[in-house]
Design the sequence.
């Protein structure tokens, strides 16, 4: 069954809002998604009915909070096809998840001259942690180039994947181009040289069925706030045998087995990586977000967004001066990135805001990719379960008004 965004919209209170006296058109879901009533209500219910610290109290309230918190770990594992809940580490967001692998695994095990393979389309969150590792550990960074269409140029993989490659880390789906990368194929190549694979799933988990066991990767990172869930909680999934060998990033209460005055010993994963009181209400929100996405169906969500991306590309291409970026056809996600000559993307976003149309403008935390595309910035409209073709029509009307305002012919 297809997904009807006009029905789905009703689940998102914010979408009933007017901005500047006009109905809100929210086209920035790649930055963060809106939240359905079910998620808002789950967090509110947690505070009203269960609120207690987890893993500590010997009383019913704390047991209920712990059951919810650990039950959600199992729910997350099932949602991403992970064989066991212990591979699911709660972190704040994708950025923290990637940093945890860089610190806890790469910093511990990589030697000078070892190589980490990234790509030209990475978000800064999957570049900067490796820059620091390169400086601190003498690790060499290599990058898979992209084609002019915006796909990874896997014909060149042999040039950058070497016997020294210890880790391949890349986005499952690009936040700029919408490209969905062939994870299994890259995993196979990585395994042939004995490298591990970390997948940045920030733009994949919210939008399509992800099965980490089938993908064959070693680590997988994502954020709740892009998948209808709250800010403040994300997930690093890792193969438990790898997590067991990793150093904790931050230490303190909850991470330890025994503490003496002069030393301490650490618990097994995932608790070793979750210092202090965690984001408990947010985990309740994440559980509700997973239930919500499952109720819509991940395949239906993906099909809906792929259709919207195709529609947006067609409508944008009809605007004189508009240059769309990213693969014209699937597999791709619900992102439409474009420039509209000669108007600067920031001016576009400001003018569209006058019509209550929210788009993103800038480098989208992907400056190396912008350089590869030969632009300083782009505009980006990104879609989700509540986006309809009429939202895209509203954006296109507003873009045309903006062209007139700037005197474009
Ligand atoms: N990777 C990708 C591909 C992203 O799109 C984002 C968010 N824009 C991130 C990583 C970082 O996510 P977060 O800000 O939730 O850490």
Sequence:
């Amino acid at each position: 069954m297809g997904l009807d965004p006009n029905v789905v919209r009703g689940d998102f209170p914010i979408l009933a809002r007017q901005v500047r006296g006009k109905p809100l058109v929210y086209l920035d879901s790649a930055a963060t998604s809106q939240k359905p009533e079910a998620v808002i209500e789950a967090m509110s219910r947690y505070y009203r009915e269960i609120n207690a610290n987890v893993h500590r109290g010997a009383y019913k309230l704390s047991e209920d909070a712990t059951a919810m918190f650990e039950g959600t770990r199992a729910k997350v594992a099932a949602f991403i096809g992970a064989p066991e809940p212990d591979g699911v580490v709660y972190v704040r967001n994708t950025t923290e998840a990637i940093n945890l692998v860089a610190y806890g695994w790469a910093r511990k095990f990589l030697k000078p001259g070892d190589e980490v393979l990234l790509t030209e389309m990475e978000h800064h969150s999957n570049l900067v942690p490796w820059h620091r590792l390169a400086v601190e550990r003498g690790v060499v960074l290599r990058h898979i180039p992209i084609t002019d269409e915006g796909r990874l140029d896997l014909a060149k993989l042999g040039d950058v994947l070497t016997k020294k490659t210890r880790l391949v880390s890349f986005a499952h789906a690009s936040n700029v181009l919408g490209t969905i990368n062939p994870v299994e194929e890259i995993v196979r190549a990585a395994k042939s040289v004995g490298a591990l694979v970390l997948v940045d799933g920030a733009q994949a988990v919210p939008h399509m069925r992800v099965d980490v066991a089938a993908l064959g990767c070693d680590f997988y990172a994502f954020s709740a706030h892009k998948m209808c869930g709250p800010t403040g909680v994300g997930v690093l999934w890792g193969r438990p045998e790898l997590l067991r060998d990793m150093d904790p990033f931050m230490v303190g209460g909850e991470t330890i087995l025994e503490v003496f005055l002069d030393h301490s010993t650490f618990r097994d994963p995932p608790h070793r990586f979750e210092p202090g009181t965690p984001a408990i209400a947010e985990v309740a929100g994440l559980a509700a977000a997973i239930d919500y996405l499952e109720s819509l169906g991940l395949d239906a969500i993906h099909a809906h967004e792929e259709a919207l991306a195709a529609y947006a590309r067609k409508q944008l291409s009809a605007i004189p001066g508009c240059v769309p970026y990213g693969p014209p056809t699937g597999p791709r996600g619900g992102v439409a990135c474009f420039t509209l000559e000669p108007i600067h993307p920031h001016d576009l976003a400001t003018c569209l805001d006058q019509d209550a149309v929210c788009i993103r403008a800038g480098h989208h935390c992907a400056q190396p990719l912008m350089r590869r595309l030969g632009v300083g910035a782009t505009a980006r409209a990104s879609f989700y379960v509540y986006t309809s073709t009429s939202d895209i029509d509203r954006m296109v009307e507003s873009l045309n008004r903006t062209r007139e305002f700037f005197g474009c012919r």
